[in-house]
Amino acid sequence: MMPTSSETKSVAPQLMPKTLHVGISLLTCWVVACTSTTGSEADIATAEQRARTLASEGNYTASIQAYEQSLALQNSDPTRNPARLANTEVQLAGLHYRLREFATAAQLYRQAIEQETRRLGPEDADVLGLSSILAGLEIKLHHPEVAEQLLRQQLAISNRVYGVERRETATILVNLAEALEAQGRTTEAAQLRQQASQIRHKLCDEC
């Protein structure tokens, strides 16, 4: 599934800003990757432009329909661009989240994560961001064990690639604590929150 001012806050309110950030990043990758426009690509571009316009007007249901049209066109194209496909799935997931259709949103994030993991690898920042969003949704869907697994994977990758004493690590620890609390593991959760607090205090001292 972004840091909050309070370590005890749910990760859910952080979902939409991160969704926007990741979606923009994926969209940039698609624009760079596209070098030609076929009839099918023109149809896809038209559908996605309509979807963005409808979303900006607050007509999320109609926007979903337009993005679904784009997704169907892409899936029918054997030369489809995986970055664009993942971006469309992320945009759809964000709209379903806005409509509180969390199960559908979670499934779309899973699909996008699968696409981007194949394309970029599990250690890519966008893949980690999408996994973080999905973990938050799994907690909302009362699947804390699934969220715990996702967050522990993120923590291992983040520690290995970026180092232990980072703000990103502290955020993952807080989110993992929430997943453990949802399972009644309050002592473990308190320890993780303490670790996160120590990391943040040290980072502030070094500023």
Rg? 18 Å
Sketch the topology as an H/E string, one letter per element.
Answer: HHHHHHHHH
State the domain count.
1
CATH top level assignment: Mainly Alpha
Number of strands: 0
Strand residue content: under 5%
* Mean pLDDT value: 85
Which CATH architecture would you pick? Alpha Horseshoe
Report the major sheet.
none
Helix content: over 70%
Return the CATH topology: Serine Threonine Protein Phosphatase 5, Tetratricopeptide repeat
CATH superfamily: Tetratricopeptide repeat domain
**Oligomer description:** single chain
DSSP summary: helix tally: 9
Distance between the termini: 27 Å
Uncertain runs: 1-17, 30-37
Structural class: mainly alpha
Tell me, briefly, the overall form: elongated
Q: Can you tag this structure with a few keywords?
A:
207 residues; mainly alpha; Serine Threonine Protein Phosphatase 5, Tetratricopeptide repeat; 9 helices
Describe the structure.
The protein is mostly helical. It has a single domain (12-34, 81-206), classed as Tetratricopeptide repeat domain (Serine Threonine Protein Phosphatase 5, Tetratricopeptide repeat). It has 9 helices and no strands. Helix 4 packs antiparallel against helix 5 (102-120) and helix 7 runs antiparallel to helix 8. The protein is elongated. 38% of the residues are buried.
Question: Mind sketching the topology for me?
Answer:
Elements: H1 15-33, H2 39-56, H3 60-75, H4 82-98, H5 102-120, H6 125-140, H7 144-162, H8 167-181, H9 186-206
